[in-house]
Each structure stands twice: as C-alpha cells, then as structure tokens.
Input
Amino acid sequence: MAFSLLPKEEKFFKLFEAQADYNVKAVKTFKALVNDWNPKSPAFEAIREIEHEADITTHEIYDKLNRSFITPFDREDIHQLASELDDIVDNVQSICNRMRLYQIAHSTPDLVQLVDILDQATDAIRKAIFDLQDQDKARRVLDYCIEINRLENTGDHARDIAFGKLFEGRPDPIEVMKWKEIYEVVEDSIDKCEDIANTIETILVKRA
Output
C-alpha cells in the first residue's frame, strides 16, 4: 500500500484533491462566463465563494502540516504544492475583479481561447493530483505533467497573438492596457499550472 506510514488521521491527499477540484470548478465557471459574458452574472459571486472555500482548505493543509510528524512526502513540497494550487483560484477571482473594475462590456475570442487552455491545464492537474498517491501510477502522473507543460507553451503563443491584435489599427490606449492586463493574468495562471506540474515532478523524483 503506497505511503503506508501516513497516519490515518492526516488526509493530505484528500485535501490536495479538494484544492484541485476547486481549481477546476472556478475555471469552468469562469469559462462559462467568458463564453456568455454578462457583467451582472451570478458567476462572479460563485467564483468568490469557491475562492473562499479553497482558502479554507489551503489553511487546513498548513495546519495539518504543522501538527504532523510523519508526512507523505517532504514538508517543503507539501507546502509548495498547497500554495501553488491555491494560486489558481486566487488568480481567477483576481481576473473577475479586474474585469468588473475595468467595466469590461464584452468578452473576446482570444480570452475565450486562453481560458480554454487554462481549463485543460487545470483538468490535467486534477487528474495528476488524484493519481499522485498511487506510486504505481507515477508514469501516468508524469504524462499529465508533460501535457501541462505543452499547454503552457500553447498559452504563451495564444497570449502573444492576443497582444498583437490589441495593437492593430488605431486602438484606444486605455482599452489596450485593460485587455493586456487581463490576458497576462490568465496566461500567468497557465504558468502557475506549469509550476504545479514541476512540483509534482519533483515529488515523483524524490520518491522514486
């Protein structure tokens, strides 16, 4: 049985799985929002509530880490993985807040594409996290990490194309600034998915 020394009362993996679920839920809610944009959508409040629940889970991991003598893998890796997973939901809420603050009136195909890439990346993270406890699935987990790295490269390319479109013709400088920041935060979220994949790969190497 993998990680047989893990005390039954310490449920780190269940908490990581909960974090990954919150990420997927937040991103899919945001994806639905950008595909059918409405500045007054209840999705904004739904994402805020998801972020709140995700924060509670993250702090629960930190609390368990402080109270545990035996952990499933290195303590610093547990802390880093929890922190990086929490960053995704935080970023999604940050994007929503900025779009409301900037009084964004519409979505764009480029935003839809970037959020779709983020959606794929968080789905892959969730699958990797759910298989992480089983050492026999290490190869599968690594494949998910490779896919996340590929998606990060795709996100970089999509961001660059989106930036290029912002400067076509005679754009409004204020609108350029708004959308450049929105695109950057979405792409940063995809980058954070790659950070999570790198942390998972480190965990796999250490326990090999």
Notes: The CA atoms of residues 98 and 181 lie 9 Å apart. The chain is about 80% helix and 0% strand.
